[in-house]
Amino acid sequence: MFAGVTISLTSVILADIVGIDKLSNAFGMCNFVGGVSVFAGPPVAGKRIPSQTCHNRRALILRTF
Fold this sequence. Notes:
0% strand, elongated
C-alpha cells in the first residue's frame, strides 16, 4: 500500500541529498543497501526469535511470518 510513496519519493529525496549530478550513484548505493538488507535480514531474525524465551501470543504470531 505504501510502496508507491516510497518509490516515488526516493528520487526526490536522493536528488535533494546528493544532487542531480550524482543521482545515478545514489540510486546504485540505495539498491545495494536494500539488497544487503534483504539477504541479511532473515538470518538475523532467525537467530533472534529462537533466543527469546517468552511464549506469548505476539512471539507466536511473529514466528508464523
